[in-house]
Amino acid sequence: MVNNVWSILKRNLLGVILLAVALVLAYGLRQPLSLFPAMVDWKTIYTLSGLLLVTTGIKESGLFSLFAHRIARRIDNERFLALFLIFLAAALSMFLTNDIALFIVIPLTLTLQQILEDDYTKIIIFEAIAVNVGSSLTPIGNPQNIYLWHQWGICFPYFVKEMAPLVFVMSIWLLVMIFLCFPSKKIAVANNHNNGVDRRLFIISVILLVAFVTSIELGYEKYFLPIILLVMLITRKRIFLKCDWGLIFLFIVIFIDLDLIRRLKAVNHLLAMLDFSNTHTLFLSGALFSQVISNVPSAILLAHNSINFKIIAYGANIGGNGLLIGSFANLIALRFSKRTHDYLSFHAYSLPYFIITLISSYCLLI
Fold first, then answer.
1. In whole angstroms, what is the distance from residue 310 CA to residue 315 CA?
2. Closest-CA residue to 15 (of 355, 265, 257, 259)
3. Element (DSSP H or E) covering residue 323
4. How far is it, in rounded angstroms, from Cα 280 to Cα 255?
């Protein structure tokens, strides 16, 4: 029993630490705990919960194993495999949002890791970077873009046109880092065993995924989530045990922490000192604030202080990389890893990429 509790706490150590931070902040700001639920963006929680269920269903169906075997037989070079998976993640994120893209691509990558008997944590890290890049292009690619898109009613093609220069710069540097960080070496299939596909579970999960993504686009995700829960309970109860519910707990606590941080006098004093009418200040604020409070709250905060949606989007999208908190997509990606030191590995690649793209974008585009 003690070992099980310790295992759960160790797996969710970051969430426990952030909960302790929330309690300390609430005490210092004299905010009652009864306000905590109002601080959570429940729309995001509903979305993540639904995605977690349906993508776990797809993973458990064995489809990823089948697809991974076919990829492994066709791509025998590590660099080309990395390019394929990383840019697949970037492409999917343009239209399915960055978190959905990760829920699809990372389980596939982990299956390939088992088949090829190699460590592909580095590829997963770059997939997190890639979805932050790809999702920047379209107004439906990530939460901050969706917010800015609706805030000013910008037409879809115009939004893409404005974001294209930024995504081009970020993509070039992503390509450079892939060539620098992944060797062009041969890989061979070490595990030819294929467990087969649970076709019924796969069909149910795919139908639910398509329907749920549609409900997200229409704004009805909280009404469709109970349907997913009911279907999974009736058809495959084991999916609930397979889901990483600690990820949902982590996001709930993060929302509470971010709300409390925004209430700090020091934060409000800093905002009052900055001149957001200055393009350079606005851009750097978006990128750097994202490193502290994440890019979605950063974009919302700056939208209340400026009407320059393009520069706000540039800063927030650049700021998705760098520190782990920069984007919720980073947290999702790292949750798939069971090793604590992978958080250090993430920053070894993400921070240099953030600095390079920040400087390049500032010099070339701002």
1. 9
2. 257
3. none
4. 28
d(CA 312, CA 166): 12
How far is residue 184's CA from residue 211's CA, in Å, rounded to a whole number? Answer: 40
CB pairs under 8 A, 24+ apart, for 138-141? 138/94, 138/95, 138/163, 140/95, 140/97, 140/217, 141/93, 141/94, 141/95, 141/97, 141/98
- The tens-digit pLDDT sequence of the chain (366 residues) is 555 555 566 667 777 888 888 899 898 888 888 889 998 888 878 877 887 888 788 778 877 777 787 887 888 888 999 999 999 999 999 987 788 888 889 988 988 888 877 788 999 999 999 999 999 998 888 888 888 887 787 888 899 999 999 999 999 999 999 999 998 888 876 665 556 677 888 888 888 888 887 887 777 888 888 988 888 888 878 888 778 788 788 888 888 887 888 788 887 787 778 888 889 999 999 999 999 888 888 888 888 888 898 999 999 999 999 999 899 889 888 887 766 677 889 999 999 999 999 999 999 888
pLDDT digits (tens, 9 = 90+) for 230-275: 888 888 788 887 787 887 888 888 888 878 887 888 877 877 788 8
Give the SS3 label for residue 186.
strand
Evaluate whether 314 touches 366 at the Cβ level (below 8 Å): yes
Q: Which of 251, 287, 250 is nearest to 365 (CA)?
A: 287
Query: Tokens 């990558």 appear where?
Result: 109
| Residue partners of 94: CB distance under 8 A and separation at least 6 | 134, 135, 137, 138, 141
DSSP 4-34: HHHHHHHHTHHHHHHHHHHHHHHHHHT--GG
Contact 310, 342 (CB under 8 A): no
Q: What is the residue whose two structure tokens read 């390939």?
A: 112
Q: Which two tokens stand for residue 242?
A: 């397979």
Residue 253: half-sphere exposure toward Cβ, Cα within 13 Å? 21
